[in-house]
Amino acid sequence: MTSSPALTIATPTGVMAVNNWLYTLLHAAAAMGFIFLLQRFVLNATLESSLLWAAVFGGCAAILATMQANR
Fold first, then answer.
1. Which of 2, 34, 55, 65 has a CA 20 to 30 Å removed from the CA of 41?
2. What angle, 0 to 180 degrees and rounded to 10, lies between the N-to-C axes of helices 20-37 and 47-69?
């Protein structure tokens, strides 16, 4: 039994399927990067605080991406 992909990307050569886990990882990584940069350089937070918030937001983003991919 195969699962349907969560996301498809149109390319010049056809349609490429993106697996659910890859979509989840990309979503979490983007959220972590954004929050880390925001905390560290815009809000001038400490490195430890920035990493903590990045981990929290990355986890939340991964949960949301998984929920959206399973619809």
1. 65
2. 150
Strands 14-18 and 7-11: antiparallel
Which of the pair, 43 or 23, is modelled with greater confidence? 43
CB 39 within 8 A of CB 54: yes
Query: Are residues 58 and 27 in contact, defined by beta-carbon separation less than 8 angstroms?
Result: no
Asked whether 6 and 28 are in contact (CB, 8 A), the reply is no
Please check the confidence at residue 1 and state whether its pLDDT lies above 50. Answer: no
- Look over the chain and give the mean of its residue pLDDT values, rounded to a whole number: 84
3-state secondary structure of 18: strand
Rounded distance, CA 58 to CA 47, Å?
Answer: 16
